[in-house]
Amino acid sequence: MPSTSDSRRTRLVCLAGFMGSGKSTIGQLLARQAGHRFIDLDTRIEERSGLSIREFFERQGEARFRELEHETLLLILGEIAEKGQPAVLALGGGTYARPGNQAALREQGAAVVWLDCPVDELFARCATITNRPLFRDEASFRELFLQRLPSYQMAEHRVESTGDPRNVVSQILSLQLFERVSA
Ligand code: S3P
Prior knowledge:
About 50% of the residues lie in helices and about 15% in strands. The chain has about 180 residues and is of the alpha/beta class. It has one domain (about 10-175): P-loop containing nucleotide triphosphate hydrolases (Rossmann fold). The protein is globular. The two termini are about 30 Å apart. The structure holds shikimate-3-phosphate. Shikimate-3-phosphate (S3P) binds next to loops. Shikimate-3-phosphate binds near residues 42 and 132.
């Protein structure tokens, strides 16, 4: 476990995890409670492209999506470095599975928290929502989850993302990841 001494504290806390793990919901709550800015990578991608994620996948395909995801991540990291203000960033489900993205986050000194949740629960959460291009059927969902698991396990922090989101936020806050910011 990394130490939480001041030298290890960060300006940027990123939430990683599979589809349905609660990255956006937890991220917004966490940012509000910590008094920091919240950024959602998928929302930024939609704003930049003028398309919903689903439309983007349909028109341009996954490979182009991954390029845009990487570019947008770099842009956000640049912004955070420039402004110097702490922020919470919700990644997309596939972002942390790409070594180039992991390297960029490491370089920026981001603290990555994996929102770990059993695949059955992830599936149940996603089954009722139809806007995820990579949610096709149960077999492919489970396969993609297993494929990505080793990447999520590389995150330096892990919290159980089941139950009340407020408890998940408390778990993250107790890690004391944010650097102290003078007013
Ligand atoms: C993806 C997950 C989505 C979105 C895109 C690709 C993935 O984000 O980035 O559809 O590869 O798992 P959420 O995890 O927020 O659904």
